[in-house]
């Protein structure tokens, strides 16, 4: 099973619920467990919110989500000035803001931050998908595995 959702979105807070709802609807239709979907929604929200807050030179950004076998891979790409991820600090647990990177790191199975050479940043988040019993996604995944043998 492979599926891709790719959107170029305006750098506006109103764009975040749009991509969240699109991705969640797709994952729900496949029967992905609710907790996994909630983790993905929160990771995606944090990554998009960071672009909206920090990628000042950019008018838009791109979200590319790939459902590949049993993984959800999310790439949030902006064309701002880039961000030095090595210099980030840990916000205290009681802080009202500044905890987005920590939240993403806690929820993602894999996370990667890249600066693009031309300009901008890429946040890549991966999460293993787990399905409800008898979910469509589970049978699609099983059929996928049989084809690769």
From TrEMBL:
- Cite the EC number: 2.7.11.1
User: Per the database record, which ranges form the Histidine kinase/HSP90-like ATPase domain?
Assistant: 10-126
Q: Which SUPFAM superfamilies match?
A: ATPase domain of HSP90 chaperone/DNA topoisomerase II/histidine kinase
Is Ion transport one of the keywords UniProt gives this record? no
Q: Looking at the keywords, is Kinase present?
A: yes
The domain of life for this entry's organism is Bacteria
Q: Which InterPro entries match?
A: Anti-sigma-factor_SerPK (IPR050267), HATPase_C_sf (IPR036890), HATPase_dom (IPR003594)
Protein name, entry field: Serine/threonine-protein kinase RsbW
Tell me what organism the protein belongs to: Planomonospora venezuelensis
């Amino acid at each position: 099973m492979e599926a891709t959702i790719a959107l170029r979105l305006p750098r506006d807070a109103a764009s975040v619920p749009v991509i969240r709802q699109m991705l969640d609807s797709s994952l729900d239709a496949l029967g992905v467990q609710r907790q996994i979907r909630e983790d993905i929604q929160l990771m995606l929200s944090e990554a998009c919110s960071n672009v909206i807050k920090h990628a000042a030179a950019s008018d838009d950004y791109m979200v590319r989500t790939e459902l590949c076998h049993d993984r959800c891979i999310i790439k949030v790409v902006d064309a701002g000035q880039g961000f030095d991820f090595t210099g980030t600090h840990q916000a205290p647990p009681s802080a009202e803001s500044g905890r987005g990177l920590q939240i993403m790191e806690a929820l993602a199975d894999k996370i990667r931050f890249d600066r693009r050479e031309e300009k901008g940043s890429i946040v890549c988040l991966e999460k293993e998908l787990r399905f409800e019993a008898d979910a469509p996604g589970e049978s699609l995944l099983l059929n996928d595995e049989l084809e690769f043998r």
